[in-house]
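hey so i finally got around to running the thing on that chain from the lab meeting. sorry it took forever, my laptop kept dying and i had to restart like 3 times. anyway pasting the input first so we r on the same page abt which one it is
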Amino acid sequence: MSLTAATSPASFLGAACTPSGRPVSARRAWAPTAAPRTRSSLGDPATWPLRRRAALPRQPSPSPARRPSPSRRRSEGAASAWCASVGRRPAAARWPPRSCPTAPRTERPCCENTRPSRACATPNLAQLHAAYLSPRHLVLILELCSGPELLPCLAERTSYSESEVKDYLWQMLSAAQYLHGQRILHLDLRSENMIVTEYNLLKVVDFGNAQSLAEERVLPSEGFKDYMETMAPELLEGQGAVPQTDVWAIGVTAFIMLSAEYPVSSEGMRDLQKGLRKGLIRLGRCYAGLSGGAVAFLRSTLCAHPWGRPCASSCLQCPWLTEEGPAGSQPAAVTFPTTRLRAFVREREKRRALLYKKHHLAQAR
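ok and heres what got predicted. didnt touch it at all, straight out
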């Protein structure tokens, strides 16, 4: 729309002019003239018109040495992508969103592994407090879980009861129920990844093998074959993991606590694989005096077929676990000595040392 003759450009613009004193043209009449502009109030110079940029002093362009490298730009992009996935804003001074491209596909699994333990609604999972991304490393700040592992914690005692085993199983299943509700499989629910903290609170740690159920076929990593005794039959057959795969691992841990042995004979690798495929569970090796509910729980969770096992939610509704609640106040009539369990833990520590040496890892003391 053009200006009418009744309104002159001079009266419309007032004192607005360029630094050289030339009046501004009529089509720029909307520009404010109440206060002089500074560089901080004008915003990004890339959005100014060319005639305005010419009137300002030119700034020296950054030297090549100060420009961010491609690797740093990729790291910044991965950081922004991770922060967006967990609902946090990156620090503007370190990761400016304007210069962050899409995160590379190779860094996405590392970011997804942090999802299971953040903002957990159950106290039985190690909590994630913060994460920092450098050009070479992803640093996770996790909750400090101080305490022994599950089996050494039991082996330190003179004896323990079936009620105490039920208490730990309740906490394992609560953690598995939460993960499965988030469509996440832990895939490494061995007793080595369970820490008993103060007040007898069990914490599930180590999400290095965790995977999402969003994938069509969930397969564990190659390192999973180092623990053949705890491998579910469907993984041995290459069928893929399901939520009942974690239930099998919990059943193996329950069997060890109630017998101080693995559920399947491990005299040889061939016999072990045959026993796992056929579900040859040695219930006769359990401690004497077990209740019928404990035996039924072991039978159901150690079924050779995944469709024959209950889910974590169904296990929590098992009468054997609910008759006294998650932490029974009534002591069990029968207690189990820890002599066999101590021998089992010693043999397992020897094998763990061999695995650390095989993979050139430093064993924590």
